[in-house]
## 1
Amino acid sequence: MSAGLKAQTDSGYQGIQQMHGNSEHPKKRSKKQPLTKGDRKNNRRIASERMLNEHVIGALKRFKILADRYRNRRRRFGLRMNLISGIYNLQSGW
């Protein structure tokens, strides 16, 4: 990953800071350390930013190109992804 890119992950990727310094993920609570108001506010901000990406990924999975194993020619994958992305952008008004 490029250092200039910001990686936003869910709380399952706790060790990503060692591989990618510019990463951000929500803070997990534990029994001994509950989250502060600032931590909860930061987690909500991260979740709201990730929500847009997750909706687009879900919409692309409806076309089954990302949800299932791609069994066609590898060189046409990019063309098909571009076509599906164009259809999604046309529908959503982007």
## 2
Amino acid sequence: MANLAEEQLIAQAKAGDRRAYERLLELSTRAASRLAFAMLLDRSEAEDALQDAALRAWKRLSNLRPGSPFQPWFVAIVANQCRDIRRGRWWKVVRVPEVTRTEAIDEADWLEGEDLRRAVNGLPFDQRAAILLHFHLDMPLDDVGIALGISTGGVKKRINRALKRLRPAMALSEVKVNG
């Protein structure tokens, strides 16, 4: 359940208050940007996904159920936007030069354990999203369930399946660290 202050911001945003919506985004942007970068492994694409998701969320704010927290709902939109971008990468040929970033993403933290990163990137979307939301963003299982539109039990099943697939990569990463 959303707290009272968040519920007020949501109500104001639904009534058309852009500042209230911007405040909701401010509270969720860090987690959403970390998820986008983890899923896309490209800073520029992650920023595009986040911006597109923010616009989609603004247009669909009426779909947020009363009493539901904003962040899991918004993170689900970001995850879906990332999936759409990954599906459509074939048409991207020209790269736009880097622009000034508003929030730095620590790539070094993510690039440690490259074998594991590749393995996570190779998971099916539903499992990858569950793993990244829970372990990378430290979201509680209940919030992951809200974000993915499934039960907490469903989240646990996806995470367990993903961990079984990741075990070989985790063992390889451990050998490199200990070796």
## 3
Amino acid sequence: MGTLWIICGPAGVGKSTHARKKAAELAACLLDSDTVTEPVVRAGMRLGGEDPWDRDSAVYRAAFRVPVYECLFATAAENLPHTDVVLVGPFTSEIRSPEWLSELRARFGVEVKVIFVTCDEEERKRRIELRGNPRDELKVRDWEAYVASSDVRPPVFEYECLPNERLKS
């Protein structure tokens, strides 16, 4: 059985970059929430008459947040008998629950390790602007409001912290 690695943190801190490195280092299966579910989420939001890029709306949270994570977990479960899995997502609400880590360990029957990725707000904004993803337009347009609504606190249970430094331009 493999190990389940959860790479979490707020938008723009470098979760996907770190996860790609970790998956390569471990020769593990990489499951990034953006890559695995993004086209389906955009199609569903569009069909619902919503902005297909909005990941901060009540509609996205109500309709897609839980199914996106369940898709990742189901795919992880199929891979864990054969290899380590590196799973990437914000998991903002989940890391507020002291029981979440033990629940994941019980659910999958494997070791679960959490890496929380963080960086300062200035660097986070710079990274978000640099990546130019349409999902980030609303964040960048009103950065102060976005930051005020963002929960950037680390997990409430055992985790490894990866403070990302400034990316080279």
## 4
Amino acid sequence: MNPFRWAVSTARNLLASRRIAPRDSRLRISNLTRNTVLAVCMEVADSAVQRNKGLLGRDRLSPGEGLWIIPCEAVHTFWMRFPIDLVYLDRKKQILKLVSEVLPWRLSACLWAYSVLELPPGTIRKTQTQPGDRLEFSIAPMPETALESPLCAGQNGAEITQ
């Protein structure tokens, strides 16, 4: 790809990702194919700084939490303290590849992916998510105060539906 097309494509992707969710908002991720919920409080990492940091510095992901890295086609778990499930998506939010319980100090990639969901370990198994499933992203309500639970809108201990 020539440099001009790469620059235009990158700029278009950044603008599109900004339209997905307002800054500091959280998303609810639903699997339309299986009628399940993967996350009720998905953070968005759509800048270089956010993508580079990812989940580093955290002790764990609670059920219902996650990180959507966009754009992204490969993930590392160097210096992480816990395993994660990875869901690789295309631009239409269709699942291309799943990797369950990726341990710290590992690499994973799907070179044709557009973005990746990082989820708590066991989420893929619990929701019976499969390649080819289509996901829906919607804005999750935000907590009214910072003292509420770490999950969106105080949904502490929110269960992932099966």
